[in-house]
């Protein structure tokens, strides 16, 4: 990590350095299932400048990227102008991978989970239209995998990483939500799983507008802070509307996933049948993920502990048939 660059390396850096442009970070995890760079990829040198790592369509190996440690980084970057092209190429690769019967379910699960998590991170860090649409693109093959492959779904459930970061929480809720919807609705084609997937994965997008010191506060929130946090529901709907990504499913899930049968939920205090089943599915996934994640205000629970708490306290007002299907995700 502390090695000095040789004279030849220094001159090469000078020759390959790209003038200042807008860049976005991408995860090196996608190199496990892609053979060529989907667009020009860069690393950053010690001066913070972007240096070409691999040109578009050139061969790209994991070993080459592991060499990034020599330069004190583990991050890869692409030009913001290439974001749409990057997204299309990555989506095409994921579609091929998911449809390929010769690839193991565990490999497919790792690929879609890592790529989806990375796309969600960008959407939450920079909720502009291009990055939100990238996330929507990557959600599609993730949903396809859950709907078509039971073994891959089991791997996805096991792969969920529990962390307080909102984008990881949303990725997990998206996976749990789609998996539960598939179990609950079965082969009923009247439920569009892709539109549901977008709603589940982006249900908490409004939290990107909540001050981080409130969102990650270790103690109890003040009444004023609670109102700010509760505002993420309508903020999320506003963001989706601003970028033309609202479907009926996404609207319902985003606006209702914190409603409760007893009327003590928010933002509208809906009761009983006024709460849509899609929102109930999201709420179950949301509560489970919150209980099993490490948070500033509580330690993470095991799956058994979380399900026990949910059954006895948290989801007493939820359709017990729906909750029984959720338990199947961890016992099947």
Automatic annotation (TrEMBL):
GO molecular function: hydrolase activity
CDD domains xref list: HDc (cd00077)
Domain of life from the UniProt record: Bacteria
Protein name: Metal-dependent phosphohydrolase
HD-GYP domain mapped to chain residues: 145-332
PANTHER family: CYCLIC DI-GMP PHOSPHODIESTERASE PA4108, CYCLIC DI-GMP PHOSPHODIESTERASE PA4108-RELATED
Annotated Pfam families: HD_5
Keyword terms: Hydrolase
InterPro entries: HD/PDEase_dom, HD_GYP_dom
The species this protein was found in: Syntrophotalea carbinolica (strain DSM 2380 / NBRC 103641 / GraBd1)
